[in-house]
């Protein structure tokens, strides 16, 4: 079964907002740190330039987006 996965870095205010948005909307998700896992850190390198910042959200293997996309998806304002 597909589920949401949130890739975050420690002490990132945008990751906290994304977590709160998903939680507020009763969306189950896993959080993976890009700080402590080199595979997750390598994944973040796929997103070059400004887009390499966390959070990044996936639904199964499908890239959903970053905080702005999550906020728009769940009808919240950034």
What does this structure look like?
It is a single chain. The chain has 3 helices and 4 strands; from the N terminus they run βαβαββα. The chain is of the alpha+beta class. A 4-stranded mixed β-sheet has the order 2-1-3-4, sandwiched between helices. A hairpin with a 2-residue loop joins β3 and β4. The chain is globular and about 30 Å long. The relative contact order is 0.25.
What is the radius of gyration? 12 Å
Using the alpha-carbon principal axes, give the shape: globular
Uncertain runs are none
Distance between the termini: 29 Å
Number of extended strands: 4
Query: Portion of residues in helices?
Result: 25-40%
What is the H/E order? EHEHEEH
Compute the average pLDDT: 81
Helix/strand class: alpha+beta
Characterize the largest beta sheet: strand count, sense, and whether it forms a barrel: 4 strands, mixed
Strand content: 15-25%
Strand arrangement, largest sheet? 2-1-3-4
The DSSP helix count reads 3
List keywords for this structure.
single chain, 78 residues, alpha+beta, four-stranded mixed beta sheet, 3 helices, globular
Describe the secondary structure blueprint for this structure.
Elements: E1 4-8, H1 13-24, E2 29-33, H2 38-44, E3 56-59, E4 62-65, H3 67-73
Parallel strand pairs: 1-2
Antiparallel strand pairs: 1-3, 3-4
């Amino acid at each position: 079964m597909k589920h949401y996965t949130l890739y975050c870095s420690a002490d990132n205010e945008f990751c906290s907002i994304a977590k709160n948005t998903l939680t507020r909307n009763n969306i189950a998700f896993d959080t993976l740190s890009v700080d402590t896992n080199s595979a997750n850190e390598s994944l973040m390198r796929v997103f070059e330039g400004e887009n390499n910042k966390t959070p990044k959200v996936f639904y199964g293997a499908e890239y959903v987006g970053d905080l702005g996309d999550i906020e728009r998806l769940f009808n919240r304002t950034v």
